[in-house]
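#dry-run=false #mode=assembly
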Amino acid sequence: MSDDRAMTTYQRLVANQWLVLRRLMQLTVLLLFLAGPWLGIWIVKGNLNYSLTLGVMPLTDPFLMVQTLIAGHVPELKAFAGVAIILAGYVVVGGRNFCSWVCPVNLVTDLAAWLRHKLGIKGGLHVSRTARYGVLLTALAVAALTGTVAWEMVNPVSMFHRGLIFGLGMTWTVVVAVFLFDLFVVRHGWCGHLCPVGAFYSLIGRLSLLRMRLPRRDACDDCMDCFEVCPEPQVIRPALKGIDGAPPIILDANCTNCGRCIDVCSKDVFGFGWRLAAEAKRLDPIPSRGTHHEQNC
Amino acid sequence: MSQPRTPMTPARRQFLADGARMACGVGLLGLGLGFYARHATALPPAAIRPPGALAEADFSGACIRCGLCVRDCPYNILHLATPEEPMATGTPYFVARQLPCEMCEDIPCVRACPTGALDHKLTDIGKARMGLAVLVDHETCLNFLGLRCDICYRVCPLIDKAITLDAQSNARTGKHTLFIPVVHSDACTGCGKCEKACPTEVASIKVMPLYMAKGQLGAHYRLGWVEKEKAGGSLVAPDTEHRYNLPEGMRYESGKGLSAEPAAAPDAGPLPRALQGDRL
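#status=ok
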């Protein structure tokens, strides 16, 4: 009996492997930052704004760097080096990978989305998915006009992460506000509509190489599970339905590469792959079903 | 000639409405954020920035709130401001009365800063200007009351440079000396050791941000004794010793008062130029 239950748990873990991996990754990143202050093991110092790994590798939030430059300050060289490393990394794996694999606010908003689904909360305010770029431009404009990195004073992403490492204070109120906003006001509200940090990472992601591919999109039976679970469902449709001859690869920069669609799809439509390979494939005169199946073997 | 107006399609109507709504939303956001940012550049007086911090207006644009200065401070005196504190969220500060700066010679906080919000040009901690100590309360300072407390003077890392004791007569007793602590802004780094060590219930000497602690003379002020030294001599008159302007045949002595001149006064020479009225 207990064996059976263990099997079930194991099977559930395997069925949700990308979700499990993602949670492990999020917690690992957080633990790397917390190991210093909690255990005295200094692997990573700092926070998501800027960190120093093993005393040598800087990592800098590129959005913050742009705000600082616009506010009229030119940082030291190591901050630039940190931006270069981040840009290089996210051009490979996808800008918004930050959102689903690293950002601590994702844990909060995913919980809100899950609870919203469980409680059957529907409706809410309509906010455009492009509003985040408006917020992004506003943050830059205020930085220019006030000469301060103003967004940092209200940014839930850096506040939460910094709070966990350096002391929360009243930061929890901001985190609760984001949670309630996502739960009651707008579905996937913060990460999917408003957050300028994610918006900036999406700009980097336009060029990125690691993409969600749909090698078996022909097998789709329109169950809508992927749309239901995806935090950015608008990115799926063109690739899934081949709208305007779109290739079977999600090129929208707002796909966070979270891999939830892989987990929930019973037809194994989705899978990670490289963009260049897929685009080369696009040149094939007639992409046949056979090639799709070969890929999946 | 008039062309029929294209009817507004629902899609276009929706597009314009959405656009207007978003513009209003982010406009409001920007306004609120802007005012908040302006307010948050005012630093509360008890919060002292780490050594080498740029002037507050520049600092709030340069600091990226990473906390590496906090991490590399060997004495753990630095905090990052949380959102409820009345300063820019996430920026570093210390409170001298809790833990003052220990003035490390290698200044690890500055070296850790990736942006130069803590200026890397600061290599001599003695040149740091985190703030300025001010003996704020002459009524509670024990030395002002006639005691030889001297603690601020003794703990000062720049003893006899940043704080000196200025001997003054104690007018109350008429026979004792007051040793008044005097802070010199050309040496005080604002480390806050004096404030930390002050034994009064509330510190009588406090470190304040420079903008609060320091006055400024008008640009037209000239200090006579400085100008005299610069010029190598008096500028207004020949430097003659002071003389009393007495009626002829009289003299004055300290303690005795006026008396008749016993003999002819020694030749005093010509009057100083400044006293030759009509000829000036």
